[in-house]
Structures are given as structure tokens and as C-alpha cells.
Amino acid sequence: MTTSSAPGKRASQRRIAFATIIGTTIEWYDFFIYATSAGLVFAQLFFEPAGKEIALLLSFATVGISFLFRPLGAFLAGHFGDVIGRRAMLVVTLVLMGVATTLIGTLPTYSQIGITAPVLLLLLRILQGLSAGGEWGGAVLMAVEHAPADRRGRAGSWPQLGVPLGFLLASGMTALMTGVISPGEAYLQWGWRVPFLVSIVLIVVGFVIRRSVEESPVFAEIAERGKQAGLPIVTLFRRHWHLVLLAALVFVGNGTLGYMTTGGFLNSYAISVGHLETTSVLLAAVFAAVVWFFSTLLAGYLADAIGRRSTFLIGFGLQAVIVFPVFWLVDAGGLPGLYVALLLISTGLGLTYGPLAAWYAEIFPASIRFSGVSITYAIGAVLGGAFAPMIAQMLLGATGTTAAVSAYLLLATLLGAGATLCLRDRRGIALGPDNEDEQAVGATVFASAAPAGEVAGQFAGTR
Q1: Mind listing the domains of the chain with CATH numbers?
Q2: How many CA atoms lie within 13 A of 46 on its CB side?
Q3: How much of the chain, in percent, has pLDDT values that exceed 90?
Q4: Residue 212: is its pLDDT beyond 90?
Q5: What is the 3-state secondary structure of 228-241?
Q6: What span, in angstroms and rounded, lies between the C-alpha atoms of 146 and 135?
Q7: Burial of 140: CB neighbours in 10 Å, binned 0-12, 13-18, 19+
Q8: Whole-number Å distance between alpha carbons of 213 and 9
Q9: Is 343's pLDDT higher than 80?
Q10: Buried (b) or exposed (e) across 42-57, using 16+ Cβ within 10 A?
Q11: φ and ψ at 314, to 5 degrees?
Q12: 168 with 286: CB under 8 angstroms?
């Protein structure tokens, strides 16, 4: 039995879970604190000369532009993650994200240095995008490749939990600054900087924790045998381009709806159109993050119990049902309506996010797995989440109604569900380098799969 298929020690599993959750939480706190601020203050501080409406569009555009650089981050981290290891890239991406985030907190505004201010803001956001593009793949592989086959779904949900936790911290910190420490003008003058500057402390904590975990057993086995792929990205696109596209579309179905909340659009809509108080909206976002956390955790367990594919389809079904009512709830129900809308959104998001890590890891061969999961996730983020807040704002401005926004979200959900139906559930497949031939075939319904008995035997042998 290979190292990759043997159950890890419980203490090691807990340490890996803690390291992946903490590290990913810090990474995504940094990423989301920007998106939250983009919907609240960046339009005024960095783009005000463009006029109110255009300034808000430009602010949301900087959120999206960073996504265009996530594939580059994924390419770089994927290549080196498959060549030199998962753990090293986790540390590099964490430090890069922290430095960029901290520097944003020190930036002068447009009124102080003119056009240089938004240019510097955009450059630092691009660095955040590069880091986010590379971080996710390393975190999920550290979790999934250490896990026994029958617990990969829940293990894969550990780094996924860092995303709602990062959103919770970002929303909570901003709510603290707007509601308690620096309300009103003080928030615009200096309070918005504090959540960015806090990142330097979090990065030190995350660095120490991530340095303490062992390398993934799958990569350790690959390195020991000298089987690292020389050009993993070339191999990925030459042999598995169709798989990258389908798996990316699965994430489009999640990310487009997700960035209505994490990308700041729903917050901005509730404040500017619904006339809700800023701190109250941010506290509602904290509530959404808590729901998202628990639904993601539940989805990890469901993925092991009923399968990755089935869990996704349940989540996409819920998303399809709610995309129109959520805006009606905000319009008619005020703050209570916003809470109900966020409850529905966050439940659907968790069900279509929790199983993603395990499923992605199981559909790519071991020697190109880091490249596969990172690049697929980054492409899905570009197609789905990148410009979702900006597109939603444009649709709202052009039509004067949220019906067009809801139709856009429904289309993305249906794309995700359709791609899900095109992929096979591969839970139980062995992840180690001895099984590359089996891993390389049968991931889609259009190709012949490995014999069912062979996969079932591998699964039974890991219990």
C-alpha cells in the first residue's frame, strides 16, 4: 500500500487541518477585505473624479481585474508545486498576499497623489490575484492527499472553510471599524486602513503554522522516485484540456453567485438601493459567512456519504430556485429580508463549494495535479467570479431592475450544473503515483472509466 493511500495518524490529520484552515483563512481575509472596501470606500477615495456611478464601476473592476492574473499565479504555483512541492508554494503565496495587503493599507489616496494612487492600488490588487491563484491548489492538495480515501470529502472541506472564515473576518473587521472605532468621516480618513494593516500580524502567524506541516505524501513519493513532470502545464493542456474546461465551469456555477456577496455587490445594493445602514449590512455579511462555513462543512460530509456529484447537484438546484427571490427579499423585507436572502445564498454556496477540493484532486493525475487543480480553479474564478459584481452593477444600471441580475446568476448556475453532469464521481480512486494510468482516464462521462471493481477495491483497501 502506498503512502498516499494509508490512513494518516489522527494527530497529523488534526495538524494538517489546522494549518490549512488557518492559512487559507488568512489568505482569503486579505483578498476579501479588498472586495469589501471596494464596495464601500474605494470609489470615493481612489476614483472619485470619474463621478459616482462610474467610480463604483471602476472600483468593482479592480476586484475583477485581479482575477485575470489568478491563472498566471496558478500556472507558476502549479508548475513549481508539481516540481518542488506543495508546502513551499503555500508559504510563498501566503507571504506575497500579506505584503500586498499591508501595503494597500499604507497607500495615499487620489486627493493626495492623483492618478498614481489608483495605479498603485491596482498593482497591489494584481499581486493579491497572483497569490490567490496559487494558494488554493496547494492548500487543498495538502489536505486531500494526506487523507484516507473514505474521508477525502471532509478533509477537502477544511481549506474550503478558510474562505467563509476569511469573509467573516473581513466583514467583521470592517463592521467594527464602521460601527465602533471610526464611524462616519473617520472611517474614510483612516479607519479603512486598519483591516489591511492587521494583515501583517496574521501573516506571521500563518507563516509559522504552515512551515510546521509535513509535505504531502503523494508529492514526497513522486519526488523520492524522481517522477516529477518536467513541464506539467504542457502535459495538462495537451491531454486534459477538456477536463480543465468542464471542471472550471463547475466552479463558475458557484463563483458567480458567491461574488454577489464576497465581491461586495449585494452589500452595495442593500446600502445604496435598499437604504440600509452600513454596519448593519456588514453584520448581515458576518451572519452569511457563518452559514456558509457550516454548509461547507456539511457538504464535505455529504460528499463522502452520497458523492461529490450528487452534493453539487443538490446545491445547484437550491441556487436555481433562489436567484430571483433573494433580491425580492432585500427589496421588500429590509434588513430581515437581507438576512433571509443571505441564509439562502450561503447554504447553496456551501453545498457547491465544500466538495470541490476532493473532486478536483480526484480527477487529475498525481504528477500534474497541482497544476490541474490550481489552473482549473483560477479559470473558473475568471469566468465566474472575476467581473460578476461589475456585470451585476451594469445590468442593474441598464435595466433598473434586479431581474436581469437574477437571470445572469441563473445562467451561471445552469452552466455549473450542466458541467457537473458531464463529470464522473471518482471518490475512492487511489491518488498515488502508482495509479497514474487509472487517474488519467474516465473522469468525464464521455470517456471509458477504469473498471468499477478496481476502484472499489482501492477504496475498500484504505478503510
Answers
A1: 3-461 (1.20.1250.20)
A2: 26
A3: 35
A4: no
A5: CCCCHHHHHHHHHH
A6: 17
A7: buried
A8: 13
A9: yes
A10: bbbbbbeebeeeebbb
A11: -60, -45
A12: yes
Amino acid (1-letter code) at residue 452: A
More confident residue, 13 or 419: 419
Q: How many Cβ atoms from other residues are within 10 Å of residue 320's Cβ?
A: 17
- Report which DSSP code applies to 435: G
In this structure, are residues 309 and 420 in contact, taking their beta carbons and an 8 Å threshold? yes
Q: Where does the pLDDT of residue 133 fall: very low under 50, low under 70, confident under 90, or very high at 90 and above?
A: confident
- Grid coordinates of 53: 456611478
**Residue 450 banded pLDDT, cuts 50, 70, 90:** low
Q: Per-residue pLDDT tens for 168-181? A: 888 888 888 888 77
Instruction: Write out pLDDT tens, residues 422-436.
Output: 999 999 899 888 888
DSSP code string of 133-181: HHHHHHHHHHHHHHS-GGGHHHHHHHHHHHHHHHHHHHHHHHHHIIIII
Closest to 153 measured CA to CA, from 302, 32, 40? 302
Helix, strand or coil, per DSSP, at residue 214:
coil
* Residue pair 319/417 in contact by the 8 Å Cβ criterion: no
pLDDT, tens digit, 9 for 90 and up, residues 260-288: 776 678 888 888 888 898 889 888 988 99
Distance CA 339, CA 176 (A): 19
Q: Is the pLDDT of residue 454 over 70?
A: no
Does residue 85 sit in helix, strand or coil?
coil
The CB-side HSE value for 113 (13 A sphere, CA atoms) comes to: 10
d(CA 197, CA 98): 9
What's the number of CA atoms in the CB half-sphere (13 Å) around residue 44? Answer: 9
| The pLDDT of residue 459 is above 50 | no
Total length of the chain: 463
- Kindly list the distances between the CA atom of residue 65 and the CA atoms of 136, 147, 165, 383, in Å, as whole numbers in the listed order: 18, 35, 24, 12
pLDDT band, very low/low/confident/very high, at 390 (cuts 50, 70, 90): confident
The answer to whether the beta carbons of residues 99 and 304 sit under 8 Å apart is no
Measured CA to CA, the distance from residue 203 to residue 102 in angstroms comes to: 10
Cα Dmax for the chain: 68
Residue 448: predicted pLDDT: 67
- Helix axis angle for 232-261 and 70-83, nearest 10°, is 130
